[in-house]
Design goal:
The chain has 17 helices and six strands. By secondary structure, it is of the alpha+beta class. The chain has three domains: about 190 residues, no CATH class; about 140 residues; about 100 residues, no CATH class. A hairpin with a 2-residue loop joins strand 2 and strand 3.
Length: about 425
């Protein structure tokens, strides 16, 4: 059985997160959250003592209490015989969570991303617990003041998986709520950033440039209010951080800490490796600053549009550099890249891709020539034509190509971006 400390038990009994921790409570600043007994699941908090670099004590206590509530609720939802571990990932799990400062004080900003490790078959666990975890996240999010998300995983899958940026960050930048580092035995392949393959850098660049595309659509809207300004400002900052991270990944220098990544980027700049990409380190510095101390943008639409244009151009240069390096090609433009029949996801299996395409688009799509390509290739092509060509593509042939890639009949820029976003949510 799982033995929980008095604070967690009280939280579960009252059904709410209190404002303060009791004096000396072990949950404060990430000490052990539970006792142990014969057959107990051990709960520790190895890793960073803080959730943020410089958030107030009230914010740190609040986040500790949310984690306590999560640990207790998950332990009630999933039997101890099946619950093998629970960790907090993301910025707060690494001790670099965002601190939003306003007149009311310090508040959390990023999502809380919890990973629940279960014993046995992952598909069965998904059927049994996914709905309950989703409901738990929806119930806790308003109380926590930020989005609370859960993902199920097995340690067996983690140990068997090939190196990836996601697993690297998960293994090295985390905070345990249930379990400890002994569970990570056999995960050495995820501890060396030099093993992260180049297609992971492409995936990061795809996602952040997709944010630029979604921002471009909002910048075209007649009504551009505070919500649109905040969305665009946030996605510009994410792109600024990611562009430097992409270059570091390509050189085998990625690190789980955004501050350490910036130090490494400075050394890379000193070596001359960033020379083709003007102001890359300055943009990265702005991205790091936003990640640690986010702000809600109030910039005018025109100012955001200028920043967007600058970052889109930088993204275009970086895209060509990375993809030519990864695919051993010499594309002169992103249009040539998008129109080329070269396989953009050679790390995937053509036979498996046809099965994926059957499930996603039907038998006809799977039997077509493009059916052997992984669906993410559609996003890689469409993004290049939507973000870096005329928006929407004015040439009839280009428009038809975009429509075919994202499977839509839309002709307006807003309609094309909406169709792209639907596909992006499935295959990013």
């Amino acid at each position: 059985m799982l033995v929980l400390n008095d604070t967690v038990t009280t939280i579960l009994k009252n059904g709410r997160i209190p404002r303060e921790l009791p004096p000396g409570d072990p949950l404060d600043h990430g000490a052990a959250a539970a006792g142990t007994s014969a057959g107990a699941v051990h709960t520790h908090h190895p890793g960073p003592r803080r959730f943020t670099l410089d958030g107030s004590e009230a914010l740190e206590r609040h986040l500790a209490l949310v984690c306590a509530r999560v640990a207790g609720e998950v332990a009630q939802l999933i039997p101890a015989a099946q619950l093998e571990g629970l960790l907090l990932a993301g910025g707060y799990g690494r001790g670099e969570g965002g601190v939003l400062r306003d007149a009311s004080g310090d508040r959390p900003y990023n999502d809380l991303e919890f990973y629940v490790f279960v014993r046995g078959n992952l598909l069965l666990a998904e059927r049994r617990y996914r709905a309950g975890l989703h409901a738990l996240g929806a119930r806790l999010s308003p109380e926590a003041g930020l989005e609370v998300e859960f993902k199920l995983l097995t340690l067996d899958k983690l140990r068997r998986s090939a190196p990836a940026m996601f697993y690297y960050d998960l293994v090295l930048g985390r905070r345990w709520l249930v379990g400890d580092d002994s569970l990570l035995t056999g995960c050495a392949q995820h501890c060396d950033s030099r093993a992260i393959p180049l297609h992971e850098a492409t995936r990061l660049l795809l996602n952040r440039c997709s944010g630029l595309l979604f921002s471009a659509e909002r910048l075209r809207r007649e009504r551009f209010g505070p919500e649109e300004a905040d969305f665009v400002g946030r996605n510009l900052a994410k792109a600024e951080l990611a562009f430097g991270d992409v270059l570091l990944t390509a050189h085998g220098l990625y690190h789980w800490s955004c501050r350490e990544r910036h130090e490494r980027l400075a050394r890379l700049e000193a070596s001359g490796a960033t020379a083709p990409f003007q102001a890359l380190r300055q943009h990265h510095a702005a991205g790091v600053a936003f990640k640690l101390h986010p702000v809600r943008s109030t910039e005018p639409q025109a100012a955001l549009a200028r920043r967007h244009a600058e970052l889109s151009e930088l993204g275009n240069q970086l895209w060509l550099w990375l993809e030519n390096r990864r695919l051993d090609t010499a594309f002169a433009t992103t249009r040539a890249y998008a129109l080329s029949r070269a396989d953009k996801c050679p790390e995937t299996s053509p036979h498996r891709n046809r099965l994926v395409n059957v499930r996603a688009f039907g038998l006809g799509a799977a039997l077509a020539t493009a059916g052997a390509a992984y669906p993410r290739q559609r996003l890689l092509h469409a993004l290049c034509l939507l973000l870096w060509e005329a928006s929407p593509p004015t040439a009839a042939t280009l428009l038809r190509r975009v429509q075919r890639e994202i499977r839509t009949r839309a002709t307006s820029f807003a309609g094309l971006v909406a169709a792209y976003e639907q596909l992006w949510h499935r295959f990013n």
